[in-house]
Amino acid sequence: MGKLIVVSNRVAVPKARGAAGAQGGLAGALNSALRDYKGIWFGWSGAESDDENDEISTQSHEGVTTATIDLSHRDIDEYYNGYANATLWPLFHFRLDLTEYERETGKGYERVNERFADSVTPLIEEDDLVWVHDYHLIPLGERLRSRGLKNRIGFFLHIPWPPTRLFVSLPYHERLVRTMLHYDLVGFQTVEWRESFLHYCSEELGAEVNEETGSVTLDGRTTIAKAYPIGIDWDHFQAEGETGEARQAGQRLLSSTRRRTAMIGVDRLDYSKGLPERLDGIGRFFDQFPERVRDLVFIQIAPPSREDVESYKQIRAELEQKAGQINGARSEVDMVPIRYVNRGYSHAELFGFFRAAKIGLVTPLRDGMNLVAKEYVAAQDPLDPGVLILSQFAGAALQMPESLIVNPHSPDDMAYAIRTALDMPLAERQRRYEATIDTVRDDNVQHWTKDFMADLTSIGTSG
Ligand code: G6P
């Protein structure tokens, strides 16, 4: 068998893992996948070049070879900030109200996919497996096929797939989805997103769809659609948890909270994460149970993300206002209820924080999977575990039904869940932890990679 070629928009080598919280699940997952398979990880360097520069720069680090290109200011503006993050991201997270559509950014998206195809094609040999990731690169498979590539090519979508009725609001939606049918295998985080995709293919494209096997046949080509719930790098995360850095971080948090229970949230500063709604839930908790204000301290770690996109500027301003409002109303001279932190921390530090915080709050309005939920549970002390409050709209809720499941749109629901978590007896915390930990440990990122790769290797290709 040949080597593995992974292609994603962002390439993050291990040494750049410092701001783990800012990276999202994809970068960490691919690092682990590539450590286990010999291969090349191709994508954008994250840097801006002055002009069209086709130079590929390669690097090897801890067994992972990366090959990256720079993008021009215009490419970043149209492809990354524009079509990927102002059109596809909000639409795929069911936020039609935030979805912008501009013909020019659509063209930029196609142009950059074309550039990716030009640059990566010479790196691909006959028997190589190609695995493309996420919404930035949906058309890449078709672009590779148009260059004559007959290799097996798979695609994994790390974010949700919206219901057909929402999806059809995207101009040229057919064109985009038709390009996906040039992959041999298309992976989704959950069965729900896979079903929506199959529904679209049958209803809108008139493709022949087999719900059971997930096969989609159109114009003589067949693509298999399947769910592969992503997991965390359990071994690596546990090893991080053993470090002095993790212990110190936990100590630091504990010594600063004293007799109050620490509740923690860690999210990229993104509207899909439901952060204002979360603060509303916490505000409601303080309103309903004012006698308990001193029992709790909420720590929200929220590294800024995609700062050139307007909707991200707005969410940041909204959060600053809400956090300020609640703190203004509820603080005392010796006590502040919300610590709102706009920076990232290393994985080791996050492990320490998660273990020290007796409540984890993961309440996205919509999320493909959400690995913070899994990392929170993975970091708990089995003898005295904390409680995870989890949104019913995170892909992770399907795998972790024994968490305290909430509707993030309901401040009352969240307020009551916080009180339940604060008062939960040890035996029940342990029962919920025991019911969840196996899937967090066993359905890990290595398992995810192995499953996807096994299927990609064994299915036929329509080349
Ligand atoms: C999500 C996406 C990833 C993306 C990450 C961070 O997890 O699925 O593709 O890399 O967010 O976002 P950024 O725009 O900084 O790459």
TrEMBL record:
Domain of life: Bacteria
Gene3D superfamilies named in the record: Glycogen Phosphorylase B
UniProt cross-references to InterPro entries, sorted A to Z: Glyco_trans_20
Pfam family, one: Glyco_transf_20
Family: Belongs to the glycosyltransferase 20 family.
Protein name as annotated: Trehalose-6-phosphate synthase
Lineage: Bacteria, Pseudomonadati, Pseudomonadota, Alphaproteobacteria, Sphingomonadales
